[in-house]
Amino acid sequence: MPAETVVLLPGTASDEVFVRSVFTEPLSQVGAVFTAPAVRTLRERLTALENAPAGHPIVVGGVSLGAHVAARWAAANPDRCAGLVLALPAWTGSPDGAPAALAAKASAQVVATRGLEAALAGTTGWLREELGRAWRGYGDLLVPHLEEAAESSAPTLEELRSLDVPVGILGCTDDPVHPIEVARQWAEALPRAVLVTTTLDAYPHALGRAVQAWRQAC
User: Fold this and answer.
1) Is the pTM of this model over 0.85?
2) Serine aminopeptidase S33 domain spans which residues (predicted)?
3) CA proximity to 11, closest of 84, 85, 89
């Protein structure tokens, strides 16, 4: 049996460096062939899945916005998807006031009017380090990307119910930007999902537990 090909996408204004840091080790433990493409826009995230180099169905997923894009792609391409690894879904369907969408809009406004350093001022520790690197990597695309992410659609419950493949989903019980209720809603709608949870003090590497959840769902 060939090794699973896994393509994982970053969240809003995040990057492939973060995705690799979180998922490389857990995916290597299950023998998967792992790709984290360098993408900056929603279109590039979708194109990365469309162009994934595999002659067989692939496992797709990602973090937050990356999970949204991957799940919607899987629903539209059921014959090409072998499973899903999803961390921190932020909303279902329309963003309509979702905390993550509001945060993206607010960040775009601060970056546009006061600059990158002002937008990073309220962050500390690993989050500041990660955002500082990733946001600078977006350059002039940062503000328009934050704005497009805030307006983007996540999969609907109907789309999630159509995904009859093994799914590992990770939610956080105390992350106000990625409410645990969303992860639970997704897990209930997905026919073959295993949900695992974590807490903010275990970030960021606990996100890799979505890999074990996916394997449990197989």
Assistant:
1) yes
2) 42-205
3) 89
